[in-house]
Design a protein that fits this description.
3 strands; single chain; 5 helices; 49% helix; globular; three-stranded parallel β-sheet
Length: 107
């Protein structure tokens, strides 16, 4: 169809460990590239609906809150790794901003 848009709608419920496993195995190269992206770029990607795995080590809580908030507005799924050293209050702020669209990997 010329000039039209196509939309793929998926409504399948999966366990978060399945999502983490599949994304981790498939997207390791994306994860490595993401580490070099600036917060503003990650916010833009999440706002556009792009899901990603982010290494939270070295990122400020406010930066992660901004990314999580963008994900909540677009419905993008974000996995944030290496956040086990953050305080519980900081993790709650990130999770709250994500409104169910963020997985915090506390391993």
């Amino acid at each position: 169809m010329l000039g039209g848009k196509q939309t793929l709608v998926c409504s399948r419920t999966v366990h978060s460990s399945t999502v983490v496993s599949n994304l981790t195995n498939r997207d390791l190269t994306i994860k490595n590239r993401t580490m070099t992206k600036m917060t503003d770029q990650l916010v833009r990607i999440a706002s556009a609906g792009g899901g990603m795995i982010i290494d939270g080590d070295g990122k400020m809580t406010d930066q992660l809150v901004r990314i999580a908030s963008a994900a909540s507005q677009s419905g993008a799924k974000i996995i944030i790794t290496n956040v086990g050293s953050k305080m519980t209050d900081q993790l709650v702020r990130i999770a709250s901003a994500g409104k169910g669209n963020v997985i915090l990997d506390l391993r």
